[in-house]
User: Fold this.
Amino acid sequence: MAAESGKIDPMHQFMIQPIFGTDHWAVAGHNIAFTNSAAWMAVTFVAVWGFMLGGLKRELIPGRWQMAVEGFTGFITNMMDTNIGPEGRKYVPWVFSLFMFILFANMLGMFPTAIVGVHPFAVTSQLTITGVLAIASFLIVLVVGFARHGFHFFSLFVPQGVKGPMAAAIFPIELISFMMRPFSLGLRLFVAITAGHILMEVLAGFVINGMNAQAAWVAPIVSLPSFVLMIGITLLELLVSAIQAYVFALLTSLYLNDAINLH
Assistant:
């Protein structure tokens, strides 16, 4: 936590800072230094890769690790079967990758690595990251929709049975609503993670400043309640981290269902 003279700065944790390559790494005049955000994305990738590699042993009697991996893959597969049908199986790798990356990124951002001098960085607290994931999913939906249905894909924006002037009035409303999907998808994840981390940082600041206060009565009145509340908020944020990964994967599957089945 960045603080000066007891002042709490909860936004400092979201600053993207270069780790190396500041002076010489540039493309078309734009610096491409390796940042803390890139580092934690790499850590997330390695963590997901290691988790999957350790669980894909295909043993006849699976161990706990293999059961955990099979549980995640089965969970996403069942989601796709339920929301799309048999044709959803071909999109399981993408939705599964989204779910696992977001889940691990959210969880790694909660790790108390600051006690060893490494401040955790929640990459999903960056709108650029969540926006890219949302736009990539939206582009896949568009490609699938036009590839399967051609211009008939636009019938998605006119409810069945609606014709004439009413259809002409509803079409732009539904189209605008459809085009807003990637914004709401990325913004929802960004806001949820950012708000939780700000709240935890503020409570941690209350605990530290209360403990460092000269008056002895400040610690039990300010620090202790803030510490108890911080524990509760941390547990809640762990739940939110999992829920947000699920919601992102669920909405992606529903959008793919619209592109495939035009419902």
